[in-house]
Design goal:
With about 450 residues, this protein is α/β, with parallel strands linked by helices. The protein contains 17 helices and 20 strands. Helix 6 (about 120-135) runs parallel beside helix 11 (about 280-295), helix 6 (about 120-135) packs across helix 12 (about 300-310) and helix 11 (about 280-295) runs antiparallel to helix 12 (about 300-310).
């Protein structure tokens, strides 16, 4: 992008605002556009810094802007196949995303982490490891974790590292983005209302290696069919991890020990109970991925282990809240799809009252219900999907189901159903939209309710 180029930023959230600031720094002529007719130019402008000269547009995009746009920067929430984007593409405008835009100004090395589940925990852990290795001022943690890449990229230098949590939405619009180390933690059905097919979703995830070569590293989960298959055609050098079998090369779990095997030699790295504060096999996999990423980035093992031993659960991810009346309460509000929620159930060691339901992302709940085993004592359902989930549960022989019309009613009901020695787990297997602004709000309300209990 060059001075004077006419750029259209679609979406006025934090990614869009970050993109405007960077484009203006680069000398572009910028329009910030949001199709939400409830917004006005004045409301959009309030989101921008006072010195911004960007034009703000809400509702319908004027024809003269459509005809003059040379580059479009999509915020992650904007689908790449909506009529406006398709029309701009057909007219010859370049289509990129905020991650690609930020990468244009990147001067250091990049670590990029994706996957259906575990991205935020692994990204946060890797960020802490890199900070311990290089110093906090030389590490930037960006992307889907909530910190726009465009807000940090100008601070990078030859000796810095950017650690990015990259979603499938963001990977749809990359062009030159080139991480030194990438990771695909797992791929399971999710966001099919956006990607339409599983093939398109998988392809978006695999895009993280689009520009990698054998000089680079890609960390993959051997126990996920999609990532194991991708390892056969991945352009980067592959390092596998496994929680279920011993590998000839890579990181694996033997009993309670994480082991690294390289070139026939092996080393016990850590004890998952003694040396980790995180719970659940999903977090064992996250730690193995972080170990492989850190090794790929040249971090001494002692540094990596010192961070892992101190690291605690990221908020809303199988996060222990409190014990009240002999009942343990866990916030796993980030369990926004069935596979993520399966990991929450597997982490429970007590009879569990489970909160499920929410916005329908066209997911299937069979495997989630089948994972209940003897762990789930009651299933309390709320939201748009509650009837769909209940029907699925009954088809699998589980009928200890209660409905709640409001979240407050749901929380009271869980407290009544749970007995001393039980756990209450918020892990809904559904998105929060429709009832809450986001999964953070859903988890925060849960935690505040628990803390008020006597």
């Amino acid at each position: 992008m060059v001075t004077g180029e006419k750029c259209l930023v679609i979406g006025s959230g934090i990614s869009g605002v970050g993109s405007v600031a960077l484009l203006e720094h680069m000398g572009a002529d910028v329009v910030l556009y949001d199709s939400d007719e409830k917004l006005t130019e004045a409301l959009i402008r309030e989101k921008l810094p006072g010195e911004s000269r960007a034009r703000c547009v809400a509702g319908e995009l004027p024809e003269e802007i459509f005809n003059s746009t040379e580059t479009v920067v999509l915020s992650p929430g904007v689908p790449t196949d909506i009529p406006l984007v398709n029309a701009l593409r057909e007219r010859g405008a370049g289509i990129i995303g905020e991650i690609e835009l930020g990468y244009q100004e990147e001067k250091g090395r990049v670590v990029a982490i994706t996957g259906t589940n575990g991205k935020t925990t692994t990204t946060t852990l890797v960020g802490r490891i890199m900070e311990a290795h290089l110093g906090r001022e030389k590490v930037f943690v960006v992307g889907n974790i909530g910190n726009p890449y465009t807000s940090e990229c100008l601070k990078t230098g030859a000796d810095t590292v950017t650690v990015g949590e990259i979603s499938s939405f963001q990977l749809e619009t990359i062009r030159d983005f080139h991480p030194a180390v990438s990771a695909i933690l797992n791929i399971t059905p999710d966001h099919l209302n956006r990607h339409h097919t599983m093939e398109a979703y998988v392809a978006a995830k695999e895009n993280i290696t689009l520009n990698q070569t054998k000089e680079d590293v890609c960390v993959l989960n051997y126990e996920n069919a999609y990532t194991r298959d991708f390892g056969e055609r991945c352009p980067a050098r592959v390092v596998y991890f496994s929680s279920a079998r011993e590998l000839e090369e890579g990181y694996f779990l033997r009993g309670e020990k994480i082991v690294c095997r390289t070139g026939g030699a092996e080393q016990e790295i850590l004890d998952i109970h003694r040396d980790m504060n995180l719970v659940g096999i999903c977090n064992v996999e996250n730690v193995m991925a972080a170990l492989a990423i850190a090794q790929g980035m040249g971090v001494p093992l002692d540094t990596t282990l010192s961070v892992i031993k101190e690291f605690r659960a990221v908020e809303h991810r199988i996060e222990f809240v409190a014990t009240k009346g002999g009942v343990d309460y866990y916030d796993d509000s980030k369990g926004t799809n069935p596979d993520a929620a399966i990991q929450g159930i597997r982490a429970m060691s007590r009879p569990t009252v489970l909160i499920g339901g929410g916005y329908d992302k066209e997911s299937s709940y069979d495997e989630w219900i089948e994972s209940f085993g003897g762990r789930v004592k009651w299933l309390v359902l709320i939201g748009q999907t509650r009837e769909k989930i209940a029907e699925c549960a009954r088809a699998h022989g589980f009928d200890r189901i209660r409905f709640a019309d409001t979240y407050e009613e749901c929380l009271r009901l869980c407290t009544e159903l749970a007995e001393e020695g039980d756990a209450v787990l918020l892990s809904p297997a559904c998105a929060s939209w429709g009832m809450f602004k986001n999964y953070e709000e859903r988890g925060d309300i849960f935690k505040e309710y628990v803390r008020r209990l006597k």
